[in-house]
């Protein structure tokens, strides 16, 4: 997941220029998929060529395919993106409906457009989707950034000591078809209280990561 730096005064002006649109996956044209794929290659490619590889051609997703996208546009095209996918996950063996958040990225020139602004736009859509929780997973290296986001907005709870099991989007000879990772779990209470999140140290996505 790409995370921009915290917004500055200049960033406030950048945010004002970004217009957000909700796009269901079936609404996107081939041209739009190609534009998104190019956007992801440039955004994720900053952290290594390997991270840009899934977005070849017009492929605008890496693992699981989003159900709905929140896309920010400015005068230069796509500025930012958040993907959402309703799915059932298993938390400690209990089935739970969530909207997984993933495919977050910001165009490299928009250092002032942070994830906090994107979440202010995304949170009302989580309510519209009618899910009890929003769910995301970030690498431990981003814990400090996510902690600041939680403290600033109070929309989410961070959970440590949890491992997340996912299937890989492709199966390769002699390699395991699944992956388990130690991550920071981010939970957004939407239709239910955080006290109702099931106990458990293993989360099974029952599919690829978004």
From TrEMBL:
Keywords: Acyltransferase, Cytoplasm, Nodulation, Transferase
Domain of life where this protein originates: Bacteria
EC number(s) reported in the record: 2.3.1.-
Keyword hit for Acyltransferase: yes
InterPro entries with a match to the protein in the record: NodA, Nodulation_prot_NodA_CS
Subcellular location: Cytoplasm
A Gene Ontology molecular function term of the record: acyltransferase activity
Pfam families registered for this protein in UniProt: NodA (PF02474)
Gene Ontology CC terms, in alphabetical order: cytosol
Class of enzymatic activity (EC top level): transferase
Family designation: Belongs to the NodA family.
Purpose of the protein: N-acyltransferase required for nodulation. Acts in the production of a small, heat-stable compound (Nod) that stimulates mitosis in various plant protoplasts.
Protein name from the UniProt record: Nodulation protein A
Organism listed in the record: Bradyrhizobium nanningense
Gene: nodA
């Amino acid at each position: 997941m790409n995370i921009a730096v915290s917004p500055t005064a200049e960033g406030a002006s950048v945010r004002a220029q970004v217009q957000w649109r909700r796009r269901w996956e079936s609404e996107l044209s081939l041209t739009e998929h190609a534009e998104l794929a190019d956007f992801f290659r440039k955004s994720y490619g900053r952290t290594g060529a390997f991270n840009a590889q899934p977005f070849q051609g017009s492929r605008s997703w890496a693992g699981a395919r989003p159900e709905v996208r929140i896309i920010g546009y400015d005068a230069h095209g796509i500025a930012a993106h958040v993907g959402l996918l309703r799915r059932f996950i298993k938390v400690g063996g209990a089935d739970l409906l969530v909207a997984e958040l993933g495919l977050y990225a910001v165009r490299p020139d928009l250092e002032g457009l942070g994830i906090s602004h994107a979440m202010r736009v995304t949170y009302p859509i989580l309510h519209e989707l009618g899910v009890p929780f929003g769910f995301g997973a970030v690498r431990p290296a981003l814990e400090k950034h996510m902690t600041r986001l939680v403290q600033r907005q109070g929309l989410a709870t961070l959970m440590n000591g949890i491992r997340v099991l996912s299937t890989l989007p492709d199966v390769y000879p002699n390699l395991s078809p699944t992956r388990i990772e130690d991550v920071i779990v981010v939970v957004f209470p939407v239709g239910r209280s955080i006290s109702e999140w099931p106990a458990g140290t293993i989360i099974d996505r029952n599919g690829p990561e978004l």
